[in-house]
Amino acid sequence: MNKIIIIVLIGLTSLVGYTQEDFTNTIKTLYENKQYDKIISEYSGNVKNYSAKAVYYVGMTYYSKSDYNNFLKLIDLSIKKDKTDPDTFFSKGVYYNYKRKFSTAIKLLKKAIKLNPNESSYLGALGNSYCFLGRSDKALSLYKSAIKKENPPDYIFTQIPLVYLMKNDIKNAIKSFYIAKDNISKDSESYINLIKNIANHELLSKEYDKALIAFKELNELRPKGFGYYSEIIQVYYAKKEYKKAETYKQRLYENYSKDTLNVYRKKWFCLDKFIWKDKRVHAMEYFAVKENKYFYKHVFYVLNENGKAKITIQMENAPNPVKSGEPKYNLGMEINGTHTSLPYKFDENFDYDELKKTVIQVLNEKVNADLSSRR
Fold it and tell me: Is the pLDDT of residue 374 over 60?
């Protein structure tokens, strides 16, 4: 008889244990499937009797609904029930990162890491805390540790080069961009942003062949946007390979004629970017050609520190028809809205190197002289 009672008690204990675990898994599955309203309506009323992990998932549901008061109450209840679950300390730490209370976040995340030092997301979140505080070396150390663990989130790989950029270490930033490229999902938006960073930084570093590879990959990833034809043209102009740039210019003009370009490309595209006297200069080409009307075809914008152009030098076409054999364009300049005609003329099939050389000469002579006289 006693044996029967013992067997029955063991059976009941197993049944209770199984039911509790099964109940927790039910809430977990609903949470992972983002059925937040169902969890709140059916499972939030009696949380005091749930397991610590079940309380945690209900709490995370409130977090997903931006109800942070209930999130904190339930996470604290989960911690009270079980102080050995690192997920609770991690989630609370992430919340305090979001609220920019980084010292509190750091304490919580360190507890999570102490309980489970092999979880990459915990290390990444703590890296974020130090990154927000401007402690780039500490953040970098944590991110590097995180990517050595199993299944690190994609964002940690992309954070490493960004920290190097904060430190103005362009060489290691570019190297880290390539490491991230080999490790994150190619189907994510993060991958697109990564290739953009590689392309732009290789271009700035005058590694034109590497920049070209990256921009062409972006074109393949976004084949209908025509967004990177201009950048490819800029690379070819930087390499002085103007004939190769013509292929991409023709594609832009074809899509301009079909009105299939996006809004940003409706009027113009960038040919070239360079530095003059610590100022950025962008050389733009307009699509439209207005015969017998005054228009600008190519414009060099000299940008100030705010990215606004107060100086432009442009190739201008006068309304009067050009006589046979005469150059089509005159060079003009505007400084703070004041226009000046310049004694330089260019044919339609002009030499870009000659034009750029003339523009720089004008900037050195006219703009410097104007600034000197003002002083």
Answer: no
Q: Which of 341, 339, 271, 340 is nearest to 299 (CA)?
A: 271
Which tokens sit at 236?
């070819």
Residue 294 in this model has a pLDDT that exceeds 70 = yes
Q: In this structure, how many other beta carbons lie within 10 angstroms of the beta carbon of residue 257?
A: 10
Q: Which amino acid is at 331?
A: L
Contact between residue 147 and residue 160 where contact means Cβ atoms under 8 Å apart: yes
Q: Checking DSSP bridges between strand 279-286 and strand 295-303, what pairing results, if any?
A: antiparallel
What's phi and psi for 186, nearest 5 deg?
A: -75, -10
Structure tokens at 271: 């040919």
- In angstroms, the Cα distances linking 224 to 24, 219, 251, 260, 275 are 46, 8, 12, 9, 31
Q: Could you tell me the pLDDT band of residue 73, with boundaries at 50, 70 and 90?
A: very high
Q: Is 371 exposed, middle or buried (0-12, 13-18, 19+ CB in 10 A)?
A: exposed
Place of tokens 């309203």: 37
375 vs 373: CA distance, rounded Å: 5
Q: What is the DSSP string of 226-268?
A: -TTHHHHHHHHHHTT-HHHHHHHHHHHHHHHHTT-S-GGGSSE
In this structure, the chain runs to a length of 375
How many Cα neighbours within 13 Å face the side chain of 176?
Answer: 21
What are the structural domain ranges in the chain? 267-375
Cβ-based burial of 285 (10 A; exposed 0-12, middle 13-18, buried ≥19): buried
Across the strands, what pairs with 44?
none
| pLDDT for 15 | 36
* Residue 312 structure tokens: 């432009």
Distance of CA 286 to the CA centre of its chain: 28
Instruction: Using DSSP, state whether 188 is helix, strand or coil.
Output: coil
Query: Cβ distance 71 to 59 under 8 Å?
Result: yes
Phi first, then psi, for residue 333 (nearest 5°) are -140, 145
Please give the angle made by the CA atoms of 329, 333 and 336, to the nearest 5 degrees. Answer: 150
- Which value, to the nearest 10 degrees, does the dihedral of the CA atoms of residues 52, 57, 62, 65 take? 170
Would you state the structure tokens that stand for residue 147, as one six-digit string? 């990517």
